[in-house]
Design brief:
Shape of chain B: globular
Number of helices of chain B: 12
Number of domains of chain B: 2
Helix content of chain B: over 70%
Radius of gyration of chain B: 28 Å
Number of strands of chain B: 2
CATH superfamily of the largest domain in chain A: P-loop containing nucleotide triphosphate hydrolases
Order of helices and strands of chain A: EEEHEEEHHHEHEHEEHHEEEEEEEEEE
CATH topology of the largest domain in chain B: MetI-like fold
Oligomer: heterodimer
Largest interface: A-B, 25 and 20 residues
CATH topology of the largest domain in chain A: Rossmann fold
Strand order of the largest sheet of chain B: 1-2
CATH class of the largest domain in chain A: Alpha Beta
Structural class of chain A: alpha+beta
Number of strands of chain A: 20
Distance between the termini of chain B: 61 Å
Order of helices and strands of chain B: HEEHHHHHHHHHHH
CATH architecture of the largest domain in chain B: Orthogonal Bundle
Largest sheet of chain A: 6 strands, mixed
Strand content of chain A: 25-35%
CATH superfamily of the largest domain in chain B: MetI-like
Strand order of the largest sheet of chain A: 6-7-8-3-9-10
Chain lengths: 360, 342
C-alpha cells in the first residue's frame, strides 16, 4: 500500500509561507509529479512528506495513518536525492546495505536484496566500486537502488535526473517509467522540467508560490489548463498569449478582437462572458498554420529556427510576440511578412484574473 | 551606425588612475625580463621566478640547518664557529652516555633525558586531549546554536594572543594570589600554590596550551564538518541511522583528511612547546615542566656553562623526530588518497 493524503498542509520558514493550504490525495501505485518553477515549494512539499521537514499545520496521512509526528525513518518511505547523497567513502554494496543494517536485518537477507536490486538496475559489476569511480548515470542507479532495497511504501524522487546530460536523461527517464511499471509502488517525483512531468506522470501537480495551481493527467493540463500560469507552464514551446476583447456573442460563438484589430471566432457555450470583456487569448504554437485565409494574423517574421522536421517561427504581431511551430521545412526568412492562421485551432480564453473562462 | 562611445564613469577614471603605476612598472620590467628570457629560455623562466623565494629559503632555513649541524660537531663555549674546535660525534655520544638506559638519572646529560621524558608525556596527553576537545568543540559549533558566530569567535580568540601573553594571563590566574585562588576563597576553599606543585604545574602546562591552541584546530575541523554535504545526513535520517552510527560511519570517515592534518600539526607543535610554559613555570618546579625546546635554549644560551654544540646536537635529534612524524603523516595521507581513488 502507498496511499498518501495531504490535508491543509502549511509550512513557514520564519515569516515566509512556503506551502499554503496544500490538499492532495495520492493513490496507491500512482506516479505523481510535482512540477513548478524554482522556489514554488515543490521540494519542500516532498521533504515534508518524507519527514525531513515538519509541517507548520495540516495533516499528512500514509495509508490512513496520521504521520505528522512519525520520524522520517518510520514512515516507510525512501528518497532519491538530487545530488544522489551516496556515501563517498563506502562501496556501492556498503551504500546499499547501510540502511538495511540499521534495522538489524539478517546478513543473508541484506545480501539477497542488494543482489536483486543490483540485477534490476544492472549495477552488479560495480558493487565493489566507490561512488567516485562511477559515471553520473551509474551513481543515479545506485541512488535508486538504495531506495529499492528498503522496499518502501512509496518512493520520493527529488529532481533525480537534473544532474545527467540531455541524452542520458531521456534514456533514464524511460527506465524510470519501466521501473515504476515493474515495482508498482507509489512514486512522487519532483522536477521543474515539464517534459519529464508530461512523459512520466499519471497525474501532474502544478505548483506556484506554495500553492497547487492544478492537478490532472498530463493531457488534461495540456488541453484544459485551469489558468494562464498552467497554460504557459505546460507545453513546449510555451503557449502564445494575446490581449483581446469580446465584441460579439451569438450562435454558440464569441467574436474576439485582438489589440491589433484582428477578429477571432471562438466556440462558446457558457454564460460567463459579455460583450466588452477584456480577455487573454491563448494559442499553442503547434496549432498555428501558415495560411492566408480570412481572419488570419498578418505578422512580421523575426527569427526562423529550422529544425528539419519542423520550423519554429518567432514573429511580431503589432508589438506582441507570437511563436509558431509548423511541420516540415518552410522557405521563410526574418523580415518577411507571413500569415498565421488559427482557423480550427483550440483557443484558450482566460479572464482578467488569469482563470480559464468556462464554456470555451 | 555605431553607438557613440560612452564617456568613462568616475569609477573607471579612478581605476585607470590607480592602475597607471602598475602599467608603468610592468613596462619597466618588460625589457629586462625579455632579456632574461632570451638568456634562460622559456623553460628556464620557472627557475628564474622561483629564485628569489629559493634564495630566502636557502638563507633563512637551509643554511641555518647546515650551520646548526656543523655546530653539533664542535665543542667549547665560544659562539663563533671559527673559534670552536671540531669534536666529531662527541656531543651526540654525550647525550647518549648512560650507565643504565632505563634510568635517565644515570645519564651524563640527565636534564636532556628528563626533558625528553617530560616532552613525551606532554605530547601524548596534550595531543590526545587536543584532538578530543577540538573535535567536540567543532561538533558543537557546527550545530544550529544561538549566537553561533559569537561562540566561534570566543574559541578562536586565544589563538590570536602571543604565547607570552598567554603565559602571563595564566600566571595571574594560577599564582598564589591569583584569580583562581581568589575565586575558590569565595567558596571557602583555602588558597593553594598551584605553580609549585609538581603534578599541578604539569597539568597546568597541558591545560594552558590546550586553551591557547584548541581554537585553531577546532576551526580546521569545523571547516571539514561543513564540507560534508547535508544530503548525506538526510539520507542517513531517512534510513533510520542512530546518531552514534552517523558519527562513526559518516562524520568521522569524511572528516579524516582534516583530522590527519590536525593530528600532525598538533604533534609538531606539542613537541616544540616552549614560550607559554617558559613564561608560566620556567620549567619548574625543579625540572617537572622542563621540555625539550627549553632544555636546548638553556643549554645553548642561558646557562652559565653554555654549550652551543650540545644544544645543536639535541636540536638535530628533535628535528629528526619531527621529520619521522611528518613522514608518517605523509604516508598515511597518501594511503588514504589511494584508497579514495580505488
Amino acid at each position: 500500500m502507498g496511499e498518501i493524503t495531504l490535508t491543509k498542509i502549511k509550512k513557514s520558514f520564519g515569516a515566509v509561507d512556503v506551502l499554503k493550504d496544500i490538499d492532495l490525495e495520492i493513490k496507491d501505485g500512482e506516479f505523481i509529479v510535482f512540477v513548478g518553477p524554482s522556489g514554488c515549494g515543490k521540494s519542500t512539499l516532498l521533504r515534508t512528506i518524507a519527514g525531513l521537514e515538519k509541517v507548520s499545520s495540516g495533516e499528512i496521512e500514509i495509508d490512513g495513518k496520521r504521520v505528522n509526528e512519525v520520524s522520517a525513518a518510520d514512515r516507510g518511505l525512501a528518497m532519491v536525492f538530487q545530488s544522489y547523497a551516496l556515501y563517498p567513502h563506502m562501496s556501492v554494496r556498503q551504500n546499499l546495505a547501510f540502511g538495511l543494517e540499521n534495522s538489524n536485518m539478517p546478513k543473508t537477507e541484506v545480501a539477497e536484496r542488494i543482489l536483486e536490486a543490483a540485477r534490476m538496475l544492472e549495477i552488479e559489476p560495480y558493487l565493489e566500486r566507490r561512488p567516485g569511480q562511477l559515471s553520473g548515470g551509474q551513481r543515479q542507479r545506485v541512488a535508486i537502488g538504495r531506495a529499492i532495497v528498503r522496499r518502501p511504501t512509496a518512493f520520493l524522487l527529488d529532481e533525480p535526473l537534473s544532474n545527467l546530460d540531455a541524452e542520458l536523461r531521456v534514456s533514464t527517464r524511460a527506465e524510470l517509467a519501466a521501473l515504476h511499471g515493474r515495482l508498482g509502488s507509489t512514486m512522487i517525483y519532483v522536477t521543474h522540467d515539464q517534459v519529464e512531468a508530461m512523459t512520466l506522470a499519471h497525474r501532474i501537480v502544478v505548483m506556484r508560490a506554495g500553492k497547487i495551481e492544478q492537478v490532472g493527467t498530463p493531457l488534461d493540463l495540456y488541453n484544459t489548463p485551469a489558468n494562464r500560469f498552467v497554460a504557459g507552464f505546460i507545453g513546449a514551446p510555451h503557449m502564445n498569449f494575446l490581449a483581446g476583447e469580446v465584441t460579439e456573442l451569438q450562435n454558440g460563438a464569441a467574436t474576439l478582437a485582438t489589440s491589433g484589430g484582428h477578429r477571432l471566432l471562438v466556440p462558446f457555450s457558457g454564460h460567463s462572458l459579455s460583450v466588452g470583456d477584456k480577455l487573454t487569448i491563448g494559442i499553442r504554437p503547434q496549432h498555428i498554420t501558415l495560411a492566408n485565409d480570412p481572419g488570419s494574423l498578418k505578422v512580421k517574421v523575426r527569427l526562423v529556427e529550422a529544425l528539419g522536421s519542423e520550423t519554429v517561427i518567432h514573429a511580431d504581431l503589432n508589438g506582441e510576440k507570437l511563436l509558431a511551430v509548423v511541420p516540415g521545412q518552410k522557405l521563410i526568412s526574418p523580415g518577411d511578412e507571413a500569415h498565421f492562421s488559427v482557423a480550427g485551432a483550440p483557443l484558450h480564453l482566460f479572464d482578467r484574473n488569469g482563470l480559464r473562462v468556462k464554456g470555451c | 551606425m555605431t553607438a557613440p562611445t560612452p564617456s568613462p564613469t568616475l569609477t573607471e577614471r579612478l581605476g585607470s588612475l590607480l592602475m597607471a603605476p602598475v602599467h608603468l612598472l610592468m613596462r619597466a620590467i618588460d625589457i629586462p625580463l625579455r632579456a632574461v628570457q632570451k638568456a634562460a629560455g622559456i623553460g628556464g623562466m620557472a627557475t628564474v621566478f622561483l629564485a628569489p623565494n629559493m634564495l630566502i629559503f636557502g638563507i633563512f632555513v637551509l643554511l641555518p640547518l647546515v650551520i646548526n649541524f656543523v655546530y653539533s660537531m664542535t665543542g667549547g663555549t665560544a659562539f663563533f664557529l671559527t673559534e670552536r674546535q671540531f669534536v666529531g660525534a662527541d656531543q651526540y655520544a654525550r647525550l647518549f652516555q648512560c650507565a643504565n638506559y632505563l634510568d635517565p638519572m644515570s645519564c651524563q646529560e640527565d636534564a636532556f633525558w628528563t626533558a625528553v621524558g617530560n616532552t613525551f608525556w606532554f605530547v601524548v596527553l596534550q595531543v590526545s586531549l587536543m584532538i578530543l576537545t577540538a573535535l567536540i568543540t567543532a561538533l558543537i559549533l557546527n550545530r544550529d546554536l544561538a549566537a553561533r558566530s559569537f561562540w566561534r569567535a570566543v574559541f578562536f580568540f586565544p589563538v590570536l594572543l602571543s604565547p607570552v601573553v598567554v603565559g602571563l594571563i595564566w600566571k595571574w590566574i594560577l599564582q598564589r594570589q591569583g584569580l583562581l585562588n581568589f575565586g575558590l576563597y569565595q567558596f571557602g576553599v583555602e588558597p593553594y600554590t598551584w605553580l609549585t606543585d609538581r603534578n599541578w604545574t604539569f597539568v597546568a602546562t597541558i591545560g594552558v596550551s590546550l586553551w591557547a591552541h584548541m581554537g585553531f584546530y577546532a576551526l580546521i575541523l569545523l571547516a571539514g564538518l561543513q564540507a560534508i554535504p547535508k544530503d548525506l545526513y538526510e539520507a542517513a535520517e531517512m534510513d533510520g541511522t542512530k546518531p552514534a552510527r552517523v558519527f562513526w560511519r559518516i562524520t568521522l570517515p569524511l572528516l579524516m583528511p582534516n583530522l590527519l592534518v590536525v593530528v600532525v600539526l598538533a604533534l609538531i607543535r606539542a613537541v616544540q612547546i616552549f614560550d607559554e610554559v617558559y613564561v608560566l613555570t620556567g620549567g619548574g618546579p625543579g625540572t617537572s615542566t622542563l621540555y625539550l625546546t627549553q632544555y636546548i635554549y638553556e643549554t645553548g644560551f642561558a646557562s652559565a656553562l653554555r654549550n652551543p654544540g650540545l644544544a645543536a646536537a639535541a636540536s638535530i635529534l628533535m628535528g629528526l623526530v619531527l621529520v619521522v612524524l611528518t613522514l608518517i603523516q605523509l604516508g598515511i595521507g597518501q594511503r588514504g588518497e589511494k584508497k579514495g581513488k580505488r
